[in-house]
Amino acid sequence: MVATRRIAVGAVGAVITAVCAASLAGCGTGTDGSRRELHGPERAKPAQAPERAVRLIGDGSTAYTGTQPHLIKPERLKPGERPPQFVVFSWDGAGEDSQKLFSHFRKVAQENNATMTYFLSGVYMLPEEKRDLYRPPQHSPGRSDIGFNDAEGIAATVEQLRSAWLEGNEIGTHFNGHFCGADGGVGEWSVAEWKDEIAQAKWFVKAWKTHAGLKNEAPLPFDYDKELIGARTPCLEGQENFMKAASELGFRYDTSGVNNQVWPKREQGLWDLSLQLVPFPGHSFEQLTMDYNFMVNQSGTTTQGDPAKHELWGDQMRDGLVAGFQRAYDGNRAPLIIGNHFESWNGGTYMRAVEETVEAVCAKPEVRCVSFRQLADWLDAQDPQTLEKLRTLDVGESPKGGWKSFLSAKPAPAPKGVPGVPAAKG
Fold first, then answer.
1. 276 φ, ψ to 5°?
2. How far from 371 is each of 3, 109, 335, CA to CA, in Å?
3. What are the residues whose beta carbons fall under 8 Å from the beta carbon of 229, sequence distance 6 or more?
4. Domain span at 369
């Protein structure tokens, strides 16, 4: 289950420089204008805009700036080659507020040669005084179970979104009002209502300058109609009708379900990149790979439980995620999918757990900490028969006889148009 949250209005964002506004170059700097020193197995390059003209879209809230920088080109597995170990760290309702966790985890990602997926809540791009522009399905105009924002908060969030994308991270959506449960929750929405909610989420991103009165700010450096290819539903509800809508709208993946640590497959034309169950230290049952679920099973609905247990609870999350990683890394190599929120529940212990997990796993050999987009690109580039064989491996099961014999068959030629695969020469 995904928790609701209210973004803190009045978050102070750094002013975008005139140079950045003119060229989008240098938007990957820290808020103090400095470049961050990176450490990881491969030192990442500072985020820079592609060297081509910027084509503004609509009111200039977004722009086409070319191919996204710092993406790894997906390649097909060679016969007998062991798959890389993918790990996806993702964030629901991503926005920059007074806690500055968005900017913090951008830095964590850079220092550990990782990219992540940030699921933006559309209402974080809409000022409080314009809330009635949001027309949520089955609710009155301006209604939302999470907060709207103000001009300063929107500017701060835009700064993080801009830099995150230029660093190779993905910007997805967590939709808008975060309605859960009965009486109009997302689990009761029709396919048409999901399409309307998605259209509004896009609109708030594509018109934030107009809505917030920030005409002189630099645009987001991507076309959101093309950037948006996947999502996670609020509270993991409404998945069935959302997937129908998403499939019809050209999305490529969904991560709203619950699954074991096995290789993903397609459902309704979308990659099913569900959250997963991993060991829960000190318990006889497994736990979902999300901070909210660890919290609920530790302090119940109290977001700030017994301070004496905060360290233990954070250690349990970290150790559970690392145990799930190790089980896959030594076993079937199924991608590990992790979901989080920019929240300081139980004294921020889950944020510490996530950061320590990133540091523990992303630098290991053959590990790729990537966004959902990059994982979907890699899956699309593989021979379907290879993926089918990988799906025969159970949780933590390594192939008998080793990877060389297990994937010894020569893969079929890749179809034309697969992301990252060269077109066949005629």
1. -130, 165
2. 22, 11, 11
3. 172, 250, 251, 252, 253, 373, 376
4. 18-72+85-393
Secondary structure of residue 255 in the 3-state scheme: coil
Whole-number pLDDT of residue 409: 73
User: Do the domain assignments include residue 23?
Assistant: yes
- Tell me the CB-side half-sphere exposure of residue 358, using CA atoms within 13 A: 28
Sign of CA dihedral 172, 178, 184, 186: positive
Mean pLDDT of 107-123: 98
Please give the pLDDT value at position 42.
42
- From CA 81, how far away is CA 27, in angstroms rounded? 38
Query: How many of the other CB atoms lie within 10 Å of CB of 31?
Result: 16
Report d(CA 269, CA 251) in Å as an integer.
9
Residue 177 lies in a domain: yes
Q: What is the CATH number of the domain that holds 253?
A: 3.20.20.370
The two tokens of residue 236 are 């993991």
What residues are paired with 88 via a beta bridge?
Answer: 337
pLDDT band at 53 (very low <50, low <70, confident <90, very high): confident
Indicate the number of domains in the chain. 1
Answer yes or no: is 13 within a domain: no
Closest CA to 124 of 88, 170, 92: 92
- pLDDT reported for residue 419: 55
| Per-position DSSP letters for 152-219, written without gaps between them | HHHHHHHHHHHHHHHTT-EEEE--SS---STTT-GGG--HHHHHHHHHHHHHHHHTHHHHHT-TTSPP
- pLDDT for the residue numbered 293: 97
Q: In the structure, what pLDDT confidence band is assigned to residue 274 with cuts at 50, 70 and 90?
A: very high
| CA distance readout (Å), 219 to 24, 26, 54, 161, 355 | 8, 14, 10, 10, 30
Among the listed residues 168, 335, 347, the one whose alpha carbon sits nearest the alpha carbon of residue 260: 335
